[in-house]
Amino acid sequence: MGKKRKRRSAENRNLTRFHEAVAKGNGSTAVELLECLNSERRVTPTQLTSALSALGRENRDGSTLTWKGTLSLANRALEMLNDGRSALGEPGFTALVKITAFAGIEENDSSYADKVRALISEMREMKITIKKRTYASLVALLCGLKLTEQVKNVITEASNDNVELDEETYSCIVAYLTDNEAEESVWEVLDEFRRTNRTISEQMAVRGSALDRFFRKHGTETMVVQRIRKDGTSPYCRIKLESVDLANEQIEQMISQVEEYFFRHEEQKLALQDLATWLKDLDRNLDCVIDGANVGFFMQRPDLGGVLSFAQIQLAVDACRANDFKHIGVFLHEKRAIGPEIDKLRESCRVYLTPSRMNDDW
Q: Are strands 288-291 and 350-354 parallel, antiparallel or unpaired?
């Protein structure tokens, strides 16, 4: 019994050190500790994914470790996975894509583009959701290696995977095409950006940004981005935007268009209908809605054991109240309604708990 207790104590120490290394972004130490844990117990996919994520952060945070060295460590870690690579899920694959992409930029080796695409193809075959952050690494690699034709086609690739690129990735593409004498393709990129994003941030349009440089090259002065005031007045042109109430017929038409555009698979439509049916029975007199899980888990790192922060949700409720919202609703899954915090939250707003097995992410 004494030997077992000592072995278990050593395992727990290594596990604690592993979590500390991950939290600090010390990926190389995390992988070494994983190898110790692997000799003592079975390494879980979650632990491996955390190590891969920490590897990416370690290099970013100024370590002397090269991206090629980081990739070598990632491959060492992958050898410990007993359940097959599909157990990595989207976070693990995305971390691996990022490490591979930046290793390719560092080595200036175009063959890494094929390696990244092979990983994305593997995700596709395993029916793992491919996200915009996965494609962001591919775009960074293609731009870094100056593969112009592939940069032009990457938006179509993403679209085929039902991925809509984010504003930062579009900015990267615009910057590359503008700076590499391929401006004729920028118009197509901007058309696609307008179709998928619909809004533009101040950061993307300020003087010196990729978009600003492109328009200046074509003799167009920089655009002005202004925030609309609380009373609906534009500080630039001083025109006031009036609020317009939609008729029921217009609301139904808008909902129909949203369903048609975003929910292309039958299971998605059925899940949305379940949520819509549940919502119809609730009080509609709300002027502010808060996604409790998104707010509560912000910066909490649930993959490292972080828990939902009711304090953060309360801060959001207080901020809405300070902006003159009176009827505030917080939506949470019923499995999150644990402990006295949920009762305290109910004192300051209306709390709606979505039932078990219902997808409330729409």
A: unpaired
